[in-house]
Specification:
The protein is 43% helix and 17% strand. By secondary structure, the protein is an alpha/beta fold.
């Protein structure tokens, strides 16, 4: 065995030999020599290590296989990793697919900010340094009724910053039914601990009453916290304390009331046939001292956490050194400002807002789009792909309206010459990756989240694969 391994190890070529192979030399000429050299060295080391550790005495690297591995790895390294994708999964705010697609206005604002210098943190009147928060503070004040605001990189950061600034070393009372966990293992108890607050749980999982909060108040209590359970819902024998009652209790005991809305909403979705989500305006109107919510969920803007509330508390948050570590850059402000401006005109909001437009997309339009696609593919690939259209349900996603689904139509694909998992993999490896749902031996493409201009891309990919 040792002799066999020694023989195989001696047959592994040198780095210089591989670099002089015509295919690899051509790769060097059209890419970057240093990248190719590094890849060759690593692949040879990997094979050498694998051979030493393996008990298979027939394990041997072939020159064509080595060239193929090196070529693919170099191309993967040099090609962009973050690329446009097509969402056929049917989850509108899909975290893995980047959540909210931006409106045309937001895309243009990002392009302008990226291409040019900007007045991000400078006062045009005085020619001196100024707060970057001012770019959206007026809009947020107008839309929500809040006295002041600050924007950080996500809502988890917003919650952490509020607690660290306003309740460090104090007790914060929260209902057991609101101890949420969101994606990425973000948990309210963990954020409480990181923010330096002592969490005091009250009530039970399904029922919490005002008397529970009242009996938990001590001289060291700093705040009452309400957390909207935007990614799950408890039904049946349930009770929770309305925000207005928490505010009244807070005023009685001179306690801060913090409202974490999670996804956040600036329009009443119940007017459009959806369950009502707590609105930021209502939180401010009902007396919350500080309210936070996401900018990249129902707001439909860039990833950020928005904090609004009373000026004296927002000013304290702005002065916290942690705020600088969690602040946003110019592209976030450009996209957020453009997105917030859309909410000034609710009559045309859904026509101009990419995310909300998908939520209210007409089901007849979805059906026509799916049927047109099915007809086109069936004619193009006769005998190679079975395509049918059927009703299904889409999800809003992103921890928003967790129990609500939307009617939709999906194209159901069944390839004749390969397994459906292989078809799904090949579509994901398309130049523009195409993501769908594999279920019950079929690949489903949901046309609620597929735009009309994306259909030719999917058709071309299917033709190339099949």
């Amino acid at each position: 065995m040792a002799q066999d391994k020694s023989r195989l190890l001696s047959k592994i070529p040198s780095v210089e030999h591989v670099l002089n192979l015509p295919a690899i030399a051509a790769l060097v000429d059209r890419t970057h020599r240093a990248v190719v050299v590094d890849t060759v060295r690593r692949k040879l080391d990997e094979h050498r290590r694998r051979l030493k550790e393996s008990k298979d005495k027939t394990l041997e690297i072939t020159e064509p296989a080595l060239i193929n591995e090196i070529t693919h790895e170099v191309e993967d390294f040099l090609n962009p990793s973050l690329v446009r994708a097509i969402n056929g999964i049917g989850v509108i705010l899909h975290t893995g697919l980047g959540r909210a697609p931006f409106s045309p206005a937001a895309r243009q604002a990002i392009a302008n900010a990226a291409e040019n210098f900007s007045n991000l943190a400078i006062d045009r009147e005085k020619g001196k340094r100024a707060e970057r928060y001012r770019h959206v503070e007026g809009l947020l004040g107008f839309l929500t009724g809040a006295e002041a605001s600050v924007v950080v990189n996500n809502n988890a950061a917003a919650t952490l910053l509020i607690l660290d600034t306003l309740t460090r070393g104090r007790e914060v009372i929260v209902s057991r039914g609101q101890l949420v966990e969101i994606g990425g293992s973000f948990r309210i108890p963990d954020i409480m601990a990181k923010g330096g607050a002592t969490m005091v749980e009250v009530g039970t999982t399904n029922r919490t009453h005002l008397k529970d909060y009242r009996s938990a108040i001590t001289p060291n209590t700093g705040a009452l916290l309400r957390v909207h359970t935007s990614n799950y819902k408890i039904t049946g024998f349930v009770a929770e304390v309305p925000l207005v009652d928490l505010v009244a209790l807070g005023k009685e005991h001179k306690l801060l009331v913090i409202d974490d809305l999670g996804s956040g909403a600036l329009v009443d979705l119940s007017k459009y046939g959806l369950p009502k989500e707590p609105m930021v305006q209502e939180s401010i109107r009902e007396g919350a001292d500080v309210t936070c919510f996401s900018g990249d969920k129902l707001i439909g803007g860039p990833q950020c956490g928005i904090i609004v509330g009373r000026k004296k508390y927002i000013d304290q948050i702005k002065k916290n050194p942690l705020t600088r570590a969690l602040r946003c850059g110019k592209l976030t402000y450009a996209a957020l400002e453009a997105t917030l401006r859309l909410f000034l005109d609710e009559d045309n909001l859904f026509a101009n807002h990419a995310t909300l437009g998908l939520i209210v997309k007409n089901v007849d339009t979805i059906r026509a789009q799916a049927e047109g696609f099915a007809e086109q593919v069936t004619k193009l690939l006769p005998g190679k792909l079975a395509v049918t259209v059927r009703q299904d349900r889409s999800e809003i996603g992103g921890g928003s309206l967790a129990t609500e689904s939307l009617p939709t139509f999906v194209a159901v694909l069944k390839p004749k010459s390969m397994k459906v998992e292989e078809l799904a993999l090949k579509l994901r490896h398309n130049a523009i990756p195409i993501f769908g749902r594999v279920a019950a031996g079929y690949l489903q493409l949901d046309f609620r989240t597929i735009r009309e201009d994306e259909v030719p891309i999917i058709v071309e990919a299917l033709e190339a694969v099949l």
